[in-house]
Design brief:
By secondary structure, the chain is α+β, with helices and mostly antiparallel strands. The chain folds into two domains: 165 residues, Penicillin-binding protein 2a (Domain 2) (Alpha-Beta Complex); 317 residues, Beta-lactamase, CATH 3.40.710. Helices cover 32% and strands 21% of the residues. It is built from 20 helices and 21 strands. Strands 4, 5, 6, 7 and 10 form a five-stranded mixed sheet that branches. Strands 12-11-21-20-19 form a five-stranded antiparallel sheet, sandwiched between helices. It has a three-stranded antiparallel sheet with strand order 3-8-9. Strand 8 and strand 9 form a beta hairpin. Helix 9 runs antiparallel to helix 20 and helix 11 packs across helix 14. It is elongated and about 150 Å long. The N and C termini lie far apart (123 Å).
Length: 585
């Protein structure tokens, strides 16, 4: 190293300058540290750009690459004749990428007005820069969405979606159900057939500039697979008739609720199913308590509508016929510590009269001659105690207690519909055995191409005998003359069941019901009606439910052009001053 020069001070003395000399080991350490840092940077660069490019690619894609979802068109739901019950209409959704949004105060006000949002709400969405996707508004009309895009705000985009529309509204609400904001089924058959109706969405990856314009397609389009259409067994016209008449009955009788089911007697197809109260599936808000399909999800004691099955079981033993005579006494029948009552004290009655007058005592005496297992088997074979297998969500089994747990009074009361619970759909289905010469038909909410094979439960002779006896119920002297239909023979049975509250039967709360079929000579339709807690003065099944049956049956048979099996003037009502034929269950 060159020797430092000396210099003179003011005193003339010469002083050697200070020399900072770095030790050799420190120079080497500094050199090694710099080289190592450079090596790390070089290694990281090689790693990211040569071996692990995903990170940089991801960051680049996050700024400019977008995966666009191509919505699949949801299948249409129609009635049995192709009339639309649920269709999908195109709508647009507006979304934003907050890091890319460039917007001024005037644009925020204009955009907020078009989206029906507060400017503060929009600002809150835009300031969340950590999110690269946020919806501003879902399911907008296309023309309104077009106005939004005309603002040309960078970072705001449009996405095609579909919204479900239900042309029949409240009339079909409980059957079809509705979809949510993501177009997935939430209730009814929309939920049951979600996979069938929804299809599979497609997608494509593109590069967009900051104004949202597509610059380049990076991947080929994945074509969406549209959903399949679904054709129901429902007849929209009969559905409307059932809705109109049930609504009228619930309002006139100031009832809590009601339900009606119309079956094709030959195929088991559900032609109509209506509940009250109902809701609008096009705007399903505040629907708590109104969205239940009561015909399938709610159970009740069937009351006297159960009697035909008890009598059928007795007939199958060969010990009884329609003309067999039974002493029903003077209106009371004691079993252990309990007493069964009848409204009509007729002494000795034929089995046909017992059904016509709805005698609890006569039916119980017949049922008590059977072994508990035999009676349980009859109820079980016609579908009580097990689901009707309609496939509907929330379908319940009802209650049919094991026969081994029965005591005598249990068996007696079950004979006339107490101590057992059913759904209205189960009850309607059970009556197919009388309409089809003893064959129980399966239930279908989807249109069938050919009649299904059912299960033979009763002999044809027993089924025909019961059908003839059930015709007496709707004649003067029976419990349901108001169920008659002009031009057609009708067979059916009333029910007036006390409701159970806190483990005991309420004295002032009833479920009025009627189940019947027509034409009785060759049944085409089965209709079951239930009105819950009528409170306008009438509560018997023959007074509340039977008129609903009559009006819906008459109009439906005319619509289907079913040939008459009786004169047009066949309806014979009792005199206006005649006492009502009442029943206790």
């Amino acid at each position: 190293m060159r020797e430092a020069r000396s210099f003179a001070t003011t005193t003339g003395a010469r002083v050697k300058p200070m020399v900072l000399k770095l030790p050799a080991w420190r120079r080497r350490l500094l050199l090694v540290t710099v080289l190592l840092g450079f090596g790390v940077l070089m290694g990281r660069a090689v790693y990211l750009q040569g071996m692990h490019t995903d990170f940089l690619q991801q960051k680049g894609d996050a700024r400019y690459s977008r995966v666009l979802t191509l919505s699949a068109h949801r299948g249409m739901v129609t009635d049995r004749f192709g009339e639309p019950l649920a269709i999908s209409t195109p709508v647009e959704s507006i979304w934003a990428s907050p890091p890319d949004v460039t917007i001024n105060t005037a644009q925020i006000k204009r955009l907020a007005g078009l989206l029906n949002l507060k400017p503060s709400e929009l600002n809150k969405k835009f300031t969340n820069s950590e999110r690269e996707f946020v919806y501003l508004k879902r399911r907008m009309p296309p023309e309104q969405a077009a106005q939004v895009m005309q603002l040309a705000i960078p970072g705001i985009f449009i996405q095609r979606e579909y919204r479900r529309y239900y042309p029949a509204g409240e009339v079909m609400a409980h059957v079809v159900g509705f979809t949510g904001v993501e177009d997935n089924g939430q209730e009814g058959l929309e939920l049951v057939y979600q996979d069938w109706l929804s299809g599979k969405p497609g997608s494509r990856r593109v590069i967009k500039d900051r104004q949202g314009h597509i610059v380049e397609d990076l991947e080929a389009v994945k074509v969406p697979q549209d959903g399949h259409d679904l054709k129901l067994s429902i007849d929209r016209k009969i559905q409307y008739l059932a809705y109109r008449e049930l609504t009228r009955a619930v309002e006139e009788n100031k009832a809590k609720a009601g339900a009606i089911v119309v079956l094709d007697a030959r195929t088991g197809e559900v032609l109509a199913m209506v509940n009250q109260p109902t809701y609008n599936p096009n705007n399903p808000v505040n629907i708590a308590g109104r969205s239940r399909n009561r015909a399938i999800t709610d159970t009740f004691e069937p009351g006297s509508t159960m009697k035909p099955f008890t009598i059928s079981a007795a007939f199958e033993t060969g010990n009884f016929t329609p003309n067999s005579m039974i002493d029903v006494g003077q209106g009371s029948f004691v079993i252990g510590k309990s007493t069964i009552h009848d409204v009509h004290a007729k002494g000795v009655m034929s089995v046909s009269q017992i059904l016509q007058k709805s005698s609890n005592i006569g039916t119980a005496k017949m049922g008590m001659t059977l072994k508990p297992q035999a009676l349980w088997s009859m109820y079980n074979q016609v579908g009580f105690g097990s689901a009707a297998h309609s496939g509907f969500p929330g379908e319940v089994n009802g209650r049919l207690r094991p026969w081994k747990s029965w005591v005598p009074i249990d068996q007696a009361t079950m004979c006339f519909g107490q101590g057992i619970t059913v759904t209205l759909l189960q009850l309607a289905r059970a009556y197919t055995v009388f309409a089809n010469d003893g064959e129980l038909k399966p239930i279908s909410l989807v249109k069938l191409n050919e009649p299904p094979i059912g299960q033979q439960v009763l002999s044809a002779q027993t089924a025909r005998q019961l059908r003839e006896m059930l015709e007496l119920v709707v004649q003067p002297g029976g419990t349901a003359p108001k169920a008659q239909v002009a031009g057609y023979r009708v067979a059916g049975k009333t029910g007036t069941a006390q409701k159970v509250e806190n483990g005991v039967y309420a004295n002032n709360k009833f479920i009025a019901s009627f189940v019947g079929m027509a034409p009785a000579s060759n049944p085409r339709l089965i209709i079951a009606v239930m009105v819950d807690e009528p409170s306008a003065g009438k509560y018997y099944g023959g007074a509340v439910a039977a008129p609903v049956f009559s009006r819906v049956m008459e109009a439906s048979l005319r619509l289907l052009a079913v040939p008459q099996d009786a004169p047009t003037n066949n309806v014979v009502l009792p005199p206006a001053n005649a006492p009502e034929v009442a029943e206790t269950v």
